[in-house]
Amino acid sequence: MYLWLPAFLWHTIILYGGDFKVMKIWTIKESGMYFITYAAKAMKYPVYLPIIQKLILLHLTS
User: Fold this and answer.
1) Which residues is 38 bridged to in the sheet?
2) What are 31's strand-pairing partners?
3) DSSP state string for the chain
4) Is residue 1 pLDDT above 60, yes or no?
5) CA 39, 41, 42, 48 torsion: positive or negative?
6) What are phi and psi of 29, to 5 degrees?
7) Which of 7-11, 17-21, 23-27, 53-57 has the lowest mean pLDDT?
8) Strand 20-29 and strand 7-14: pairing?
9) Is the sign of the CA dihedral 46, 40, 35, 11 positive or negative?
């Protein structure tokens, strides 16, 4: 069962010491506020993104 929560999503590319992509999500669930950050080198970012998305969904829907 999916519970759709209001969330804010922010993507950026950081260029210090290498190319990094960063995704930040923040949302409110019940009585807590959650901040989740996923950062990886630009070449590896799409490789691990599906895994990160599944982990986020599992955490926020449990």
Assistant:
1) 23
2) none
3) ------EEEEEEEE-SSS-EEEEEEEEEETTEEEEEEEEEETTTHHHHHHHHHHHHHHHHH-
4) no
5) negative
6) -135, 125
7) 7-11
8) antiparallel
9) negative
pTM: 0.68
36-49 average pLDDT score? 89
> CB neighbours (10 Å) of residue 5?
12
The strands making up 32-41's β-sheet, listed across from edge to edge, are: 7-14, 20-29, 32-41
Burial class (CB in 10 A: 0-12, 13-18, 19+), 58: exposed
**Residue 38 tokens, joined:** 């996923």
